[in-house]
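Help! Submission page says 'invalid entity' but I think these are all valid:
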Amino acid sequence: MTLEQNDRLILLTNDDGMYAAGLRALTEVMEEFGKVVVVSTQESMSGMSMALTVKTPLRVKLLEETDRRRVYTCNGTPTDSIKLAVNQLLERKPDWVVAGINHGANASVSVLYSGTMAATIEGCLYGIDSVGFSLSDFSPTADFSVCREVIRTVMRKLTEMRLPEGICLNVNIPSIPENEIKGLLVCRQSKGNWKEEFEKRKDPMGRTYYWLTGFFHNHEPEATDTDEWALANGYVSIVPVSVDMTAHSYLKTLKEGFNT
Amino acid sequence: MTLEQNDRLILLTNDDGMYAAGLRALTEVMEEFGKVVVVSTQESMSGMSMALTVKTPLRVKLLEETDRRRVYTCNGTPTDSIKLAVNQLLERKPDWVVAGINHGANASVSVLYSGTMAATIEGCLYGIDSVGFSLSDFSPTADFSVCREVIRTVMRKLTEMRLPEGICLNVNIPSIPENEIKGLLVCRQSKGNWKEEFEKRKDPMGRTYYWLTGFFHNHEPEATDTDEWALANGYVSIVPVSVDMTAHSYLKTLKEGFNT
């Protein structure tokens, strides 16, 4: 891959591993926008959040190189992948970081656990316009082609505008036929949490172990300005995500509470 | 441990593992406030963010039980520890989740990577008043006794007031003699990121590998209302952290951008 001065350089990653269909679909669409460098995780890293690999060394493998793309895989997390790419593997700082397409929605509080959104947030921390895409379909045969036109629309918008410092995008696509998608909805993260999260079992030795499981509980099913509502009603949800987690609206009250 | 109806039930965890001096110091102080259940991680889980264990089963071991405390350890992450405790190990929903005392500061963007703050955020997602404590000292001989009075002050405040839904506290304590601490400062998360994050080496076979390293770069060293400033100037920083990552201030502009 040769990078000309006016080529757009796009860094891709995901959290479903190097063979994920969602990553292949994303790579194909993003090649329409520039030169693509993929740094995928070797294995599925779903639910790894912004975990960093600090206790073991990282290794990187170049898998493929064509005129339009270069594909690596690394043994770390999605956040490691972005850090490695920006610091060691890329010719220069990329213009965009794009993560996904995740197998399953990352709406509401899933933004906190998602490896896909972690990679997106990591790109944003480097001052790069960053977007994470997820398809609301966990089935192994999920059809990612429904996402192509949505991705094109969002990224075309990013060719016209830059995101503010410290803000990236969390885009979730409903799992419905493309012609039934009603449109794109800019919205906020829905309030919710996970419930009944473990299955308790006995191993053959009689010792207890637990599997993580559970279901999502939407705290505000009536609200119509949330990502959960958008997805449930046939819209693509676009949530601007802030890397600043300060609860600014509560600063004053808390200051008064502590008399500072 | 017997739990009476008016006992305060406090869930503790950390990300430095079951033998961490910071966890022992925190446990001792928190016993002044109620009955304590500790669910620590077996190993150090520093930088694990809100990672979930989804591919392997979790196991829990009861290590110690006295009249005032019950101590478990689990083979998962800090977030797993809180989920396991709330769903499987506790008699009832705890009144507080308290994490730490972390070995090293979790100011600025470290809130995104920290296992200690991940556990705190997880508690908050369950609707529990949650606080994470960190000492700004990475040395193996760090003296956590400096934190005791700070922890007492913060937790006494929480006996008088409840935190709003979706907001928890990130408390960082400077590594200076206790009598030099100037006070507690409610402040915001400083803008910053990490730089030069890898050391590239060759293994004995001549193959390249990378170690995560690097240093923190403060983007706003002049600002006096940030956690970084507080710590550098002898104050304890208290940042209210929101589990809602929506960039609310940018919603309107983004909506106009997408014409929705």
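Support: the input was valid. A stray whitespace character was the problem, and the output above is from the cleaned input. Chain A has a mean pLDDT of 95.
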